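Why does this matter for the project? Reviewers at the last site visit asked to see concrete outputs rather than summary tables. In response, this paragraph embeds two records directly. Each consists of the residue sequence and, immediately after it, the corresponding structure tokens. Nothing has been edited or filtered.
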Amino acid sequence: MNDDSDVDLAVVGSGGAAMAAAITARQAGRSVVLIERGVLGGTCVNIGCVPSKTLLAAAGTRHGALNNPFDGAPTSAGTVDLGALVRQKDELIERLRGAKYAAVATAYGFEVISGQGSFLDRDTLAVDGQALRARAYVVATGSEPVVPALPGLDSVDWLTSTTAMELDEVPESIVVIGGGYVGLEQAQLFAHLGAKVSLVGRVAPHAEPELAEGLRRVFSEDGIDVIEEHAVSVAAEGGQVVVRTASGAVARGARLLIAVGRSARTDGLGLAAAGIDLDERGFIRTDAFQRTTNHRVYAAGDVSGAPQYVYVAAATGRVAARNALARTAGAPDAQVDYTGLPAVVFTSPQLASAGMSEQEALGQGYTCACRVLDLSDVPRALVNRDTRGVVKVVADATTGRVLGAHALAGGAGEIMLAATYAIRAGMTVDDVADTWAPYLTMAESLRIAAGLFRNEMPTSCCA
């Protein structure tokens, strides 16, 4: 360690990647400081995963009451007090911020400094102008919503997923631009709260086509109007927001929500002064070891262009810290293994995946075999009286090894843990089909789908 270094590791940010980096360094007995210019906790706990999923759970409860399939157990649902739901959401955020971030920092013994971190040169970071020298640095500042260059956007009071979750009243109608995971979740959230929703954009563009088609049907049943085209302009007309597409299709609503992706949050960091390059998308350029073009500085989480999931952020944070602190002992060697990476879109039913899609498997040179199981063949779905969805398994036709699993189903995200284990363990479809699965669980669908590779004839309920 240099004699003039103030700390072993300085981490800019305080979300999942930053906390994982700090914890890893402290577990190694190193001194750490976190620098956060905003609210402790980053995107996930404050404006991302936690608030959106608790509001989706509330909206889903209401929607379930209105669409109860059990005639003998009647339910009902009234109007929504969105202000009360938002206050409940904020209370949860406050509690988790304290328990999972502030208390954790105290327990591990690292300081969180409030201020803007900015590099003065390749070796020195300043916090609100005061120099701080560390043996190594990790930048983990996250991402923020992309604002597209849409003509007319400045003429309307548009929302992002962040500001939409601060509303205290459900809008009568809303147009959502963007068919990715944020757009899908927000569209269904407001539809289930009682708003008239229009979605402009391709539905689930990265999902398996069988699953995306199933989700289109679900959205239609939910009363969501879907225009699978690119928006080309926005205007305020007659007290409403009007979105037009290239074909001339029009979507109208009282409010507009923009959900077309997220970009790296790099403003104010002084990256150029530190010799840190950005890639063509504007994310910090890193190698397989999370090392930037300044080998004293590492980057982790969304800002590094990694897949935008909090568990990926944490994994990259751990790798970044290990490699950053090992840099004087030799070449860094820790890397994130993305094999079997799971993903979940928290629509109802959920849209989830693990590992490769069919197209990705073909692109990597595999001779691909796939089977698709309709939920009408899954006992759990039958007893739930909700057979909307499918399960798809992607396998290597030569070896039978499971390459990917995909599901549109209630609890699809829970299925993906078993799928991830199967993929990482190199299990074949026969292995999965012959592995115990508890009856009347949605996870059993993975075993049933794997069994289709050797027998596509109908089976008995539990045979």
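We now turn to the second protein, recorded in exactly the same manner.
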Amino acid sequence: MTPRILVIDDEERMCWALERALSHEGYQVSTATRGLQGIDLTRETEPSMVILDLKMPDIDGIEVLKEIKNINPSIPVIMITAHGTIDTAIEAMKIGATDYITKPFKLEEIKVLIKQALHLSNLESQVNFLRQELGKTYGKLVGQSDAIKEVALLIRQVAKTDTTVLITGESGTGKEVAAVEIHKGSNRADKPFVAVNCAALPEQLLESELFGHEKGAFTGATSKKKGRFEIADKGTIFLDESGEMPISMQAKLLRVLQERCFERVGGTETIHVDVRVIATTNIDLAAAITNGTFREDLYYRLNVMRISMPPLRARKEDIPLLVNHFLEKFDPSHSVKISSSAMKILNGYNWPGNIRELQNVIERALIVCQGAEIQPVHFPKELLNSLEETTPPVMNLTEGGFSLEELEKHLIIKAMEKHNNNQTKVAKYLGISRPTLLYRLKKYGIK
């Protein structure tokens, strides 16, 4: 994106000279010959940096600087001063000015200062954003199963490219973790990683979130706002749950993927960006295409490189490693262990919520566990009940034989006790219809 520079100087000739020289360098330049006008332009144009003269006719340059820093503390400001006001320029730097230059100066001097100030500002913005985004707990890929090793290999292969990646899989399988791993292993690792949950926002807010908006574009748009694509320039944008995106937004996203440009909501300026796109979905996009809820052309744009995250039930050998990972995460002092009986239950469960569910179970167990070892009793009742219902009964065959009718009667009685005589639940539990159950109850005189 082309940096926008605002020059605030009461000398029209100085404004003209700087605008001409800096435009020739490829910058977008705005000028103001009054301090208050410069403050207004700062609000309206959101400049990348400001060149400000200390001596202004309507308002002191120091006051202008303070107002600019109130509007946006991160805007770099270079002060223009005369020899007699160097002390004031130093005062301005204490307030937040980036640098100063004394009159008369050569154009080459101020060009160097501008380039340095913009470079420093960009680095600071990137570092702040990276700290904010990657400071979140994304986790890491954990496991030694063949399924997860295959995923790790694909991540390493695609990371160094700029290829668009589509990550599929059930909820909780670690799609976001895989996306972060791709970014970390890429040549864009020191640039922003910007995540957007496409299912969490209504259409108008999603468009503004992705592409930004101009002041007054809609009710509540009191100022100009950069979109996530603009913020992610030179980095990676992560479109989480992209399959839930409204069909009208899909057309706009398709254009960005094809042309790498867009306009803010309510704006006419075309903004060009260089971003790497990683998208995820937990729905069947082929079925969504058939149903008319997802564009086929967008699917092929996203599905350049596909990575499928395996469900936890398909990589149960990784459960002990994941359990130890979460124990270390939530209990860094390693004061609590997990018993073999508890681990056996975790290995036997089917994990419909995948890794996210396992993480929640371990975190909960650590909270309710008062001793030094997690036991089965510390797991949620739903997990234990589900495991019990899916565990086949164990029968001891006696030497003297047994009656099938007696065994059937015994099973029905036990099932009735387990489900508090709820006939619908008992029938489901035994895998028979309710009329069949009623017949058996009458046959064996069970009430």
